UniProtKB/TrEMBL annotation:
The keyword NAD applies. It comes from Pseudoroseomonas ludipueritiae. SUPFAM superfamilies: 6-phosphogluconate dehydrogenase C-terminal domain-like (SSF48179), NAD(P)-binding Rossmann-fold domains (SSF51735). Residues 12-171 form the 6-phosphogluconate dehydrogenase NADP-binding domain. Belongs to the HIBADH-related family. It comes from the Bacteria. InterPro entries: 3-OH-isobutyrate_DH-rel_CS (IPR002204), 6-PGluconate_DH-like_C_sf (IPR008927), 6PGD_dom2 (IPR013328), 6PGDH_NADP-bd (IPR006115), HIBADH-like_NADP-bd (IPR029154), HIBADH-related (IPR015815), NAD(P)-bd_dom_sf (IPR036291). The keyword NAD applies. This is NAD(P)-dependent oxidoreductase. Gene3D superfamilies: N-(1-d-carboxylethyl)-l-norvaline Dehydrogenase, domain 2 (1.10.1040.10), NAD(P)-binding Rossmann-like Domain (3.40.50.720). Residues 174-290 form the 3-hydroxyisobutyrate dehydrogenase-like NAD-binding domain.
């Protein structure tokens, strides 16, 4: 099936209006798409409704007549419910429509969801987990890691470009989720290393910010050292990206490495530390609170 580009003012549905989803939906609205929105609590849709979006009582209502249906939901089970549960997208989604799942979920179920949507409705599912955080969602500069049908990816370019600055088609359904797991294991493992490095410096009597600046001048430089280390040093724990969400993502990364037979000790160690961080009562704090846990375990005051 050849798909036409989904250009404004095409009707687009957006389901899931958390911090990321609400910002992405607003960018789609600003780009000129006719927006229908659905969420468990209507209050989060108030700003979008005031700007002209249509409220839908269910995912099925939101998807009816939409050229594209976008999802941004917490976990795999939530995506399955929105797609295939009572009042789900599958009840009304049009043949040839493109469903874009911006959630970070497991890769194998994603592939199954894509196959089921294609079989039952003739619709396409792109998995497009994102990186860039709330600021990237707000500014429309997210990195989109996309799996799914190549023709659907091309058709959805105008939608994806309304929310993302870097779009990469990585392969069949589930490929985007595998790439996002790789992204998260890199972030978490680097965060663990940064936390240990800062604890080492403190125990040896180094001034933490001077140490960070020195490290930024060499090959250890990274986004995590530049940003997360600063949060650790300053004791800034307001999220950001909550530790409990990073724990969820690291569980997905562990599953991905096991599914593909990858020897992944760094992933396993970082995942274990995220479990410990959440179990210490810091699940609602920024994931950089890992620095405080490592400091505590090293006998340092926090």
């Amino acid at each position: 099936m050849t798909l036409d580009p989904i250009q404004p003012p095409a009707p687009v549905a957006f389901i899931g209006l958390g911090v990321m989803g609400a910002a992405m939906a607003a960018n789609l609205q600003r780009a000129g798409f006719r927006l229908a929105v659905s969420n468990r609590s209507r209050g989060k849709a108030a700003v979008l409704e005031a700007a002209g979006a249509t409220w839908a009582e269910s995912p099925a209502s939101a998807a009816r007549g939409a050229a594209c249906v976008a999802l941004c939901l917490p976990d795999t089970a939530d995506v399955e419910t929105v797609l295939f549960g009572p009042g789900g997208v599958v009840e009304t989604v049009e043949r040839g429509a493109v469903v874009i799942d911006f959630s970070t979920i497991a890769a194998a179920p994603t592939a199954a969801f894509a196959a089921r949507l294609a079989q039952e409705r003739g619709a396409f599912l792109l998995d497009s987990p994102v990186s860039g955080g709330p600021a990237g969602a707000r500014d429309g500069t997210l990195t989109c890691m996309v799996g799914g049908d190549g023709g659907a990816f091309e058709a959805a370019q105008p939608v994806l470009r309304a929310v993302g600055g870097k779009l990469t088609h990585l392969g069949p359904p589930g490929a985007g989720q595998v790439c996002k797991s790789a992204n998260q294991l890199l972030v978490a493992a680097t965060l663990q290393a940064v936390a240990e490095a800062l604890a080492l410096g403190r125990k040896a009597g180094l001034e933490p910010e001077a140490m960070r600046q020195a490290l930024l001048g060499g090959s250890a430089r990274s986004f995590v050292l530049e940003n997360h280390a600063k949060r650790i040093i300053e004791g800034t724990t307001a999220p950001g990206f909550r530790a409990e969400l990073m724990r969820k993502d690291m569980r997905l990364a562990l599953t991905a490495t096991r599914d593909h037979g990858v020897f992944a000790p760094a992933t396993a160690a970082a995942a274990q530390m995220l479990e410990a961080l959440v179990n210490s009562g810091r699940g609602g704090l920024d994931s950089s609170a890992l620095g405080a846990l490592v400091a505590e375990l090293s006998g340092l005051d926090t």
